[in-house]
Write a structure and sequence with these properties.
Elements (H helix, E strand, L loop, with lengths): L1 H39 L1 H8 L1 E4 L1 H11 L11 E7 L8 E9 L6 E12 L4 E9 L23 E3 L5 E5 L4 E4 L5 E4 L6 E4 L2 E4 L3 E5 L2 E3 L4 E3 L7 E5 L2 E9 L11 E10 L1 E8 L6 E12 L6 E9 L4 E8 L5 E5 L3 E7 L9
């Protein structure tokens, strides 16, 4: 009898161990899944990423600082368009990407197709970057989504090893590449160029540190101090504005040039006050910009009036950065704008 009881106890013990082991495995599996979920956070990433971004204030501040620091490397003024655009030829979530310089949409230096896929093995959201073989055909494709309906895989090219892996650290997303896995052979020097970019995405900013060196470790491009381009998510404003022909010196009965369809973003964009239909100009432009007072370090929202002949701001008003509406009335010039109601972080 004692032997039977002992045997039953052994069986019970083994069952208990097995159950405990199964439970531990389940807990470990759940924990692993939770880590992956927290690391990838795909929906949150796209919520933050889908927008236009600009580093106008960084570029502006660098130019001010360079007066006292002649060796300072000024960050280029770059505008980024990350427009969600479904691509039937590809899996995952895709974007049309357009990047241009100096606030001028005609100075495009890069157009790309981005594809995002969750990579559970790496616990990351993987970005695959594609180049269009025919850049002209897909120019401003975000404004012509029907183009993507017929896009085929043989019209785009990607570079293996240049993937970016995005991981959520509990506060923001870190974007990294494999060390020296992304490279091309320079047509100019014949040497292999290695790219090692690091990025950061928050709910309001994307930091991009593009850097490259040749196979001998020589600098090719990138900020030498390691300071990334710090781009803020733009907010677009719509409104109206105009001025008397002749400007400040015009008589009160002078003809007005007016536009009721103004559209400009708050990261330094300049828009001319001109007739929306004929293009007749007043000789003045307006600008919205988030800047910082140099003497007080107070962040402000600036609404400036620019003389087109000199390019100088002749007067401006300022308010809190979160101000959804602003306006200016100089009697001979008037304008008013408010936050764009639909897709405020895109111009379209």
């Amino acid at each position: 009898m004692k032997q039977i009881i002992a045997a039953l106890c052994v069986v019970a013990s083994l069952v208990g161990c097995a159950s405990q082991e199964d439970a531990s495995q389940k807990i470990a599996s759940m924990a692993s899944a939770q880590v992956q979920e927290d690391t990838i956070q795909e929906a949150l990433f796209h919520q933050w990423f889908a927008a236009e971004f600009d580093n106008h204030e960084q570029h502006w501040q660098d130019n001010i600082n360079k007066e006292k620091e002649p060796d300072l490397q000024v960050h280029e003024h770059i505008h980024h368009v990350f427009a969600p655009l479904a691509t039937p030829a590809l899996e995952g979530t895709t974007y049309f990407v357009k990047q241009y310089m100096d606030g001028d949409p005609s100075k495009v230096y890069r157009q790309r197709l981005y594809q995002f896929l969750p990579n559970e093995d790496k616990g990351a959201l993987q970005l695959n970057i594609f180049r269009f073989k025919d850049e002209a055909k897909y120019a401003d494709a975000h404004l012509h989504p029907e183009l993507y309906e017929k896009l085929s895989p043989d019209e785009i090219v990607t570079y293996p090893g240049c993937e970016v892996y995005w991981r959520f650290n509990g506060e923001y997303f870190d974007g990294t590449m494999g060390h020296n896995t992304c490279s091309i052979v320079s047509k100019r020097s014949g040497k292999k160029i290695f790219f090692n970019d690091t990025l950061r995405l928050t709910d309001n900013e994307i930091w991009i540190a593009d850097k490259a060196a040749d196979e001998d470790g020589n600098y090719v491009f990138g900020n030498k101090a390691g300071i990334p381009h710090k781009n803020r998510k733009v907010t677009y404003f719509t409104g109206w504005g105009g001025a008397r022909v002749g400007g400040k010196e015009a008589s009160e009965d002078a003809r007005w040039i007016f536009n009721r369809d103004l559209l400009l973003h708050n990261e330094g964009q300049i828009v001319a006050l001109q007739d929306a239909k004929t293009g007749e100009k007043t000789g003045y432009s307006i600008q919205l910009a988030l800047l910082t007072y140099q003497n007080t370090s107070d962040p402000i929202f600036k609404f400036g009036l620019i003389d087109d002949a000199t390019g100088k701001t002749i007067t401006y008003i300022w308010s809190d950065r979160s101000n959804p509406t602003t306006g200016m009335n100089l009697r001979w010039m008037q304008a008013g704008v408010k936050v764009k109601q639909i897709r405020p972080h895109f111009s379209f």
